[in-house]
C-alpha cells in the first residue's frame, strides 16, 4: 500500500550557475573560436520532457492501480487485510534492498527502537486504510482519505502550535461538508465502515505529522526511513495475522492462480508507488506534484463508479464536487503562502526564484 499521500514538496536540485558578468570576463580573456551554447538542445529538452511525463504517468497509473487491485483482491480472492498489507510491505522491503544495491540511496544505521513507534503507527495507518477500502465503496473510501488534510491541520495547530491563515481554514470547510454530504447519502455505508475509516484517518494523520518530525530528528530521507520501517512493520503484523486471520482456501486451481497473480501484482505495484512518489517529488515542481495527487483522486472516484458499478446519486455527486473544490482551493492557498506558484505575482511574497 502506498504510504506517503501528504502534499508537500521539500526536495530541490542545486544547480551551478555562472553569472553573465563572469561569462563576459571569460570571453574577453579567451575569445572562443567555436561558439558553444550552454542551453540544452531541442532533442535534449524533448528527452527530458518524455522522461518526466513517463515518470509522472508511472506514479499515476500505479497509485490508481493499487486501489483497484486491492479492492479486487478483497472482493474475489478471500485474502484478508493484514495478510495483504504484510505481503506488500515484504515486497517493498525487497525492492528497497535492490535499490540499495543499485546505489539509489545510502543506508544510514539507526537503532530499531527509534523507528518502532513510527512503524507501529504506519501499520495502523495502512491496515485501517485497507480495511476502509474493504468495508466501504471506493468513492467513500477516497473521500474519507481526503479528511486526513483537515485532521493534520488540527493536530499541527493543537500540539505543534503551527499557525494557519483564515483562508486556509476556510478552504477546509467545503472539504468536511462535502465528505459528510457524500457519506450520509451512501446507502452502502455502515457504522463499522465509518468507525474503521475514522481510525484510518486518525492514524494516517498522526503518521504524516510524526514522519516529518522524525525525518528531521533522525536526519534521514524518506527512502532511508522506509528501508527500516517496511520490514519492521511486516514483522509486527505477523502475530495479529496468526491470531485474527486464516490462510485462504480455494475451490479450484484457477482461483488459486488468480489470487496469487493478483497479490504478487499488488506487491510489485505497491513498491512502484513508493518509488515513483520519491522520483516525482525530486524531479518536478510542487504544483506538478499536487496536481498529480488531485488527478489521482478524481480518477479513483470515477474509476470506482465505472469499474465497480458503485451507486452515485445527486447528493453524493454534490458532496464530491464540494470536497474537490475545497481540496483544490486548499492547495492553491497553501502554495501561494509558501511562494510555490509558478506565476510569481500570484504568490504572497513574489520572488524571482519561486517555483
TrEMBL record:
Please indicate which superkingdom the organism of origin belongs to.
Eukaryota
Task: Specify the Sugar phosphate transporter domain's residue ranges.
Answer: 57-330
Transmembrane among keywords:
yes
- Pfam families (alphabetical): TPT (PF03151)
Is Transmembrane a UniProt keyword of this protein?
yes
Name the UniProt key words of this record, in alphabetical order. Answer: Membrane, Transmembrane, Transmembrane helix
Annotated membrane-spanning segments are 52-74, 86-103, 115-133, 139-160, 167-185, 191-213, 225-247, 259-281, 288-308, 314-333
Q: How does it sit in the membrane?
A: Multi-pass membrane protein
Where in the cell?
A: Membrane
Q: Which GO terms describe its cellular component?
A: membrane
Among PANTHER family, the record links this protein to: SOLUTE CARRIER FAMILY 35
Tell me what this protein is called.
Sugar phosphate transporter domain-containing protein
Q: Name the source organism.
A: Adineta ricciae
Amino acid at each position: 500500500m502506498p504510504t506517503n499521500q501528504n502534499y508537500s514538496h521539500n526536495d530541490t536540485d542545486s544547480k551551478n550557475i555562472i553569472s553573465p558578468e563572469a561569462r563576459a570576463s571569460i570571453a574577453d580573456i579567451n575569445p572562443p573560436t567555436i561558439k558553444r551554447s550552454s542551453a540544452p538542445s531541442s532533442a535534449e529538452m524533448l528527452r527530458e520532457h518524455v522522461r518526466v511525463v513517463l515518470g509522472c504517468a508511472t506514479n499515476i497509473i500505479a497509485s490508481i492501480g493499487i486501489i483497484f487491485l486491492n479492492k479486487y483482491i478483497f472482493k474475489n480472492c478471500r485474502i484478508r487485510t493484514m495478510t495483504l498489507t504484510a505481503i506488500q510491505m515484504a515486497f517493498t522491503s525487497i525492492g528497497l534492498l535492490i535499490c540499495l544495491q543499485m546505489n539509489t540511496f545510502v543506508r544510514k544505521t539507526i537503532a530499531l527502537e527509534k523507528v518502532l513507534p513510527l512503524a507501529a503507527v504506519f501499520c495502523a495507518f495502512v491496515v485501517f486504510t485497507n480495511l476502509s477500502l474493504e468495508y466501504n465503496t471506493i468513492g467513500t473510501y477516497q473521500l474519507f482519505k481526503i479528511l486526513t488534510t483537515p485532521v493534520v491541520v488540527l493536530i499541527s495547530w493543537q500540539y505543534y502550535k503551527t499557525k494557519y491563515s483564515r483562508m486556509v481554514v476556510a478552504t477546509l470547510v467545503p472539504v468536511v461538508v462535502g465528505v459528510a454530504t457524500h457519506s450520509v447519502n451512501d446507502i452502502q455505508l455502515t457504522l463499522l465502515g465509518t468507525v474503521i475509516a475514522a481510525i484510518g484517518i486518525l492514524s494516517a494523520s498522526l503518521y504524516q505529522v510524526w514522519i516529518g518530525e522524525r525525518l528531521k530528528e533522525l536526519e534521514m530521507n524518506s527512502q532511508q526511513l522506509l528501508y527500516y520501517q517496511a520490514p519492521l512493520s511486516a514483522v509486527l503484523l505477523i502475530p495479529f495475522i496468526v491470531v485474527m486471520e486464516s490462510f485462504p482456501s480455494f475451490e479450484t486451481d484457477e482461483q488459486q492462480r488468480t489470487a496469487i497473480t493478483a497479490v504478487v501484482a499488488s506487491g510489485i505495484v505497491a513498491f512502484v508507488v513508493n518509488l515513483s512518489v520519491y522520483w516525482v517529488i525530486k524531479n518536478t515542481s510542487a504544483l506538478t506534484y499536487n496536481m498529480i495527487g488531485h488527478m489521482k483522486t478524481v480518477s479513483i472516484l470515477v474509476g470506482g463508479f465505472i469499474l465497480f458499478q458503485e451507486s452515485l446519486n445527486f447528493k453524493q455527486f454534490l458532496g464530491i464536487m464540494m470536497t474537490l473544490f475545497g481540496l483544490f482551493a486548499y492547495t492553491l492557498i497553501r502554495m501561494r503562502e509558501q511562494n510555490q506558484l509558478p506565476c510569481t505575482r500570484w504568490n504572497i511574497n513574489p520572488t524571482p526564484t519561486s517555483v
